[in-house]
Amino acid sequence: MSTTSHIKCPNCGVFNTNKTHCESCGFLISHQEKETARAKTVQEEELVSAVEKIEKVNFIKKLKRHPFFLVRFFGWILNSVWIVLNIIGAFIAWFVAMVAAG
Ligand SMILES: [Zn+2]
Question: 44 CA distance to ligand 1 centroid (A)?
């Protein structure tokens, strides 16, 4: 015979034999099942936060790969503006350095 587990439902008090959910009220009573469900939830939360981080970093890249051309176009504009800002910043840094060197 296989091992039987008698678990008292914490919700309604009914004893259940070899059940993961209470026969009477459907409450999850299996400790193993609870652990599995909890681990799965934690894993999913971690995955979502990791994906969110990546998406923030790759926001412009994502826009550029968007199926809708206007959004892709907007992504290219953002990308160009970002490059131009970097060039202007570099130019100002160079200019200030030149003026300071006088
Ligand atoms: Zn119950």
Answer: 28
Q: For 27-71, what is each residue's pLDDT tens digit?
A: 988 888 888 888 999 999 998 888 887 777 677 777 778 888 888
Cα 28 to ligand 1 centroid, rounded to whole Å: 8
Two tokens, residue 7: 């678990």
Distance from the alpha carbon of residue 48 to the mean position of ligand 1, in angstroms: 33
From residue 39, give the alpha-carbon distance in Å to each of 31, 36, 43, 44, 69.
12, 5, 6, 9, 40
pLDDT confidence bin for 91, thresholds 50/70/90: very high
